[in-house]
UniProtKB/TrEMBL annotation:
The gene is cah_2. Residues 9-311 form the Acetyl xylan esterase domain. This is Acetyl esterase (Deacetylase). Its EC number is 3.1.1.41. Substrate binds at residue 91. It comes from Enterococcus gallinarum.
Amino acid sequence: MYAIDAKKRWQNYQGSQRKPADFEAFWQAGFQEVDDLGTDYHLEPHPLNSSVAEAFDLTFTGVQGATVHCQLIRPKRLQKKSPLLLQFHGYHSDAGDWSDKVAMAAEGFWVVALDVRGQGGLSEDVGLTTKTSLKGHIIRGVESGPNDLFYRSVFLDIYQLTRLMVAEPQVDTSQLYTYGASQGGALALICAAVAPEIKESFVCYPFLSDYREAYRLDVENSAYEELAYWFRFKDPLHQREEAFFETLDYIDLQYFAPWIKGKVHWAIGLADTVCPPKTQFAVYNQLSSAADKEMLFYPEYGHEYLPKFGDHMRQCLADVLREKE
């Protein structure tokens, strides 16, 4: 598919438009729960063997009492105030190698990479989930209501992490950025939504959006296969279909999009069958009018490494550093 065809087909698509009436109140209650936890965190030095950067295991106690782990890599020669890049990883994975954050630290950035609770990294998943707990994290807790959804806890971890970093005196709160791909792209956008201080976000083919439409789009061959799994084994006659999707609406990225105020750089593979482009446009088209945005199209690429996007991100951030000199 050519970029011009994708724009023509989906440029006006606004997603499912089923936002819960109490969406804002629901999330404000969660943010207050986090605010009541304070801004304490613990740093433990981590061996890095670098002449330009130092590393730490950063941990804090999140909602439900879970220990949440992040990698923190920062310049050895600390500036009075440093820009910060918050980095998020893909589904089931972890924060990745420490060494791949050194380049940004060498440029003067603090880099903080979250381990999503209960996935491949060191963060704990301590939530007690009734009924379905097998196959995927989107559906974890869905039968108990929105307060028990797995991603409610993850989104609140992200809010808490931003509050910790904004309170850090050595971080320049006017220079906060996010990055991620797939699940990480969704979480980078969630971060920008819950933290108005985020200046720019760099995302590749974000996950966690437009669940109703994702279910219609060859769901069993996409990242949303667990939706079909739930119906197949828990509700084969779809008698609870509406309640199921109404609960997932609370963690649908499209409804957070209007909260984003910073600039968004969005890379999309038009051959992506894992996170279908239509579900991505549902979010992109609902970004706030206050948010500057650009979409970079990769017609021959799917859910995979997208060349040149990393260079684009680095160039944008290099321009920021030059402005500060």
